[in-house]
Amino acid sequence: MSLVDRDLKVIWHPYTQMQTALPPMPIVRGEGVCLFDENGKKYIDAVSSWWVNIHGHAHPYIAQKVSEQLNKLEHVIFAGFTHEGAVELAERLLKLLPINQKKVFYSDNGSTAVEVAIKMCLQYWHNKGEGRTKILAFKNAYHGDTFGAMAVSGRSAFTAAFDSLLFEVEFIDLPTEENIESLKSQISNLKSNLACFIFEPLVQGAGGMLMYEAVYLNELMAHCRKEAVLMIDDEVFTGFGRTGKSFACDYVAEQPDIMCFSKGLTGGTMALGITTCSQQIYNAFLSDDRLKTLFHGHSFTANPIACAAALASMDLFTEPSTRENIQRIEGLHSQFLEKIRHHPKVKTVRQTGTILAMEWETGNDTSYFNSLRDILYRYFLDAGIILRPLGNVIYILPPYCITDVELNYIYNKIEQALEEI
How far apart are CA 118 and CA 77, in angstroms? Predict the structure, then answer.
């Protein structure tokens, strides 16, 4: 029995309608920006395997550090114990973040990092004896698939089956020059009950790579600070260079109270989540009253192997060559954007850092369920490119090691698709 047949017999894949989906593609190895199937065909991973891979597949340096850690300590309970990797990773990450970030809380993935952040904010006000329970978020947001993360994500087909079970959230539009004053008024009217404001900075990933300007985010954050509304910066997607700077928050002057990380944190090697917070948040949990404890944890909290992968990834991320590669990708994306901007089939095209997104004109509204998605997905797979369109939105989000030749091949195939489909 083939691997595909065995898979279909026992596996339920994520975000997949198993009744109608194409059979899964067996991948046997990765190298750099490429993945190879069981027949030896090469595919350029133009979406970084769900946005996690920043240095390339099977990176030898990360593999070496993970192997070394496996032979020393695979795991230890993190309640009442610690280890060198967790401490060093926290120390090094905090040095890269806004100066007000002082503490690191480990979890398992992006959704759990968000869950921790939400619980920190809600319990912060509870511990202080104030009844702030409402959360502010952007429309079309995506923060994860666990219940708290779903609740602060935009209501959509993804959440429809659970909407009646999700807690109420105040949703606002992305800030623009035209609506910023109105948004600030909404916050002022809600402030006495607002626990926090959670946002994806500059780019809403799963919402369709929707982008907005840092100047208006900064203005909104400044107003939240004025009204004592805590702020959660969800950098699960945008962190570690995706927007051109190390973190999207580097584009704004205001500092969030809490930040969330995952995806690129380990270079795409394995799951790990981090939630950082200010001293102010942390202090609200310090008490002789044990009921003020943050009651949250995971079996694999601060797993030493995951920490080793993250430390190795950080070594690579802070090398000058990585910054040069990010700037190179930005430049090539910008050139391609200008080249296709006025094509009749291009509804809109936008870029933030290494993220390039193009909406295909279909005559209908942009939709995650647009039938064009499957046509484009197969077209690019046949060309040896992994692009996973969000409906009629194509985006390129490659590992930083991608070459000019590989990027230009992707651009050329997109141009061909615009003519042929």
Answer: 24
Residue from 45, 233, 234, 257 carrying the catalytic annotation: 234
67: number of Cβ within 10 Å: 11
Domains and CATH numbers, the chain: 3-58+321-420 (3.90.1150.10), 73-317 (3.40.640.10)
Q: How far apart are CA 397 and CA 394, in angstroms?
A: 10
| Tokens 């030493």, residue located | 304
Q: Assign 3-class secondary structure to 171-234.
A: EECCCCCCCHHHHHHHHHHHHHHEEEEEECCCEECCCCCEECCHHHHHHHHHHHHHCCCEEEEE
Q: How many CB atoms lie within 10 A of CB 404?
A: 11
* Residue pair 269/313 in contact by the 8 Å Cβ criterion: yes
Q: Is 234 a catalytic residue?
A: yes
The reported pTM is 0.97
Select which of 15, 41, 42, 72 is catalytic: 15
Backbone angles phi, psi at 351, to 5 degrees: -145, 140
Per-residue pLDDT tens for 130-166?
989 999 999 999 999 999 999 999 999 999 999 999 9
Q: Name the active-site residue from 263, 379, 395, 400.
A: 263
pLDDT digits (tens, 9 = 90+) for 98-134: 999 999 999 999 999 999 999 999 999 999 999 899 9
Instruction: Round to whole Å and give the CA distance between 381 and 388.
Output: 10
Q: Is 233 a catalytic residue?
A: no
